[in-house]
Amino acid sequence: MKKVVVGLSGGVDSSTSAAILHHEGYNVVGLTLWLMKGKGQCCSEGMVDAAGICEQLGVPHYIVDSRDVFEKYIVDYLVSGYGSGVTPLPCSQCNKAVKFGPMLRYAQAELGIDYIATGHYAQVEFDNTTGRYQLRRAVDRQKDQTYFLYDLEQEILAHCLFPLGRYPKSQTRRVAAEFDLQTADKPESQDLCLVESHGSMKTFLEKYLAPKPGDIVDVDGRVLGRHEGIHNYTIGQRKGLGIAAAHPLYVVAIDAGRNRVVVGDRASVHSPDCTVQRINWVSIAPPDAPIRARVQVRYRTRPVDATIVPLDGGRAKAIFDEPQFGITPGQAAVWYDGDILLGGGLIEPEAKD
After folding, report:
1. How far apart are CA 40 and CA 272, in angstroms?
2. Coil, helix or strand for 78?
3. Domain 211-264 adopts which CATH fold?
């Protein structure tokens, strides 16, 4: 019988993944990572629900204390990023450094199991032509989570199962009800676990970053107002600036060196390109010439046509066919060929004069 370790958060998606695999004949083992205390999907309540699902299915359940790992790779990562003027993307970092890698190592070393599964909406297929595992969008494009999985390397994808990749979300709920899972009607998590735990990202950051007042200036350097800390702002932000102006103002740049926030009109927040670092080429080998692709620069933005130009040092430049709004350092730029995720990386801050 095929064996698989299923990462269980206590939510309906991971629970349904475990039930589907169990129904398909897999020898399922549940695994929950203890990441933090407090409210949200990564807390004690989630562990209780995960244990309940395993009891329903009649499968073993293990809990691994990953709080130190989470603190190092996510909490410190967020605090450092916001403090330096970028807007970090914790989910992709968490998937690579906290969840998938450690889960697979635990499954193989402690349980002798070679496959892991999660409740992510994505698909993995092996391409015989390239000899690589392809990461593909989920059937339900509204729920597709490949954007957050771009940093998973071949060594991880070769051992991953994503049962929900072939289901629309509405069907997931129906399947959960058919299996009579106790999480079938559980509300979905609406935000980052840290945000849910602390109420807002601002409240979370206040625990780690002291107020550091500075100027809010326009693109010509004229002082328009004051801020209490650059960590409270992100590129493209319009609300909460506290500035009266004749036309809407948006955050254009965050200048950590001068501790100031730069604002301008909407047109000034559009960029023709961006430079991307820490690239992971997923479904294809790193190209040695420019390629055409559809690039997504935030989870909820639609992909747009662009040219990806390889640069030295494992970097690349994404040149958009049309300038894009709110390109944000610290977020991911991920590129696709149709449903196939080709690669992605983190958007670099622009060089200061």
Report:
1. 38
2. helix
3. SH3 type barrels. (2.30.30)
Token reading at 63: 């809990």
Helix axes 12-23, 169-178, angle to 10 degrees: 60
Q: Where are the domains of the chain?
A: 3-198, 211-264, 269-347
* Spatial distance between the Cα atoms of 235 and 255, rounded to a whole number of angstroms: 11
| pLDDT (tens digit per residue) in 222-251 | 999 999 999 999 999 999 999 988 899 999
Closest CA to 156 of 229, 80, 207, 92: 92
94 is catalytic: yes
**Known active-site residue 274:** no
Of all helices (H) and strands (E), which one includes residue 21?
A: helix 12-23
Q: Does domain 3-198 sit in CATH 2.60.40.10?
A: no
| Of 43, 91, 160, 193, catalytic | 193
Tokens 């990461």 label which residue? 135
Q: Minimal CA–CA distance to 123: which of 101, 149, 97, 92?
A: 149
Residue 351: what pLDDT? 66
Q: Which CATH architecture is the domain 269-347 placed in?
A: Beta Barrel (2.40)
- pLDDT digits 0-9 by tens, 289-317: 999 999 999 998 999 999 999 999 999 99
What strands, in cross-sheet order, belong to the sheet with 223-227? 223-227, 214-218, 260-264, 250-255
| Residue % of the chain over a pLDDT of 90 | 86
Give the model's pLDDT for residue 40: 45
- Helix, strand, coil tally for the chain in percent (to 5): 30, 30, 40
Catalytic-role residue among 42, 91, 94, 160? 94
Residue 296 and residue 303 in contact, taking contact as beta carbons nearer than 8 Å: yes
Q: At residue 173, what are phi and psi to the nearest 5 degrees?
A: -60, -40
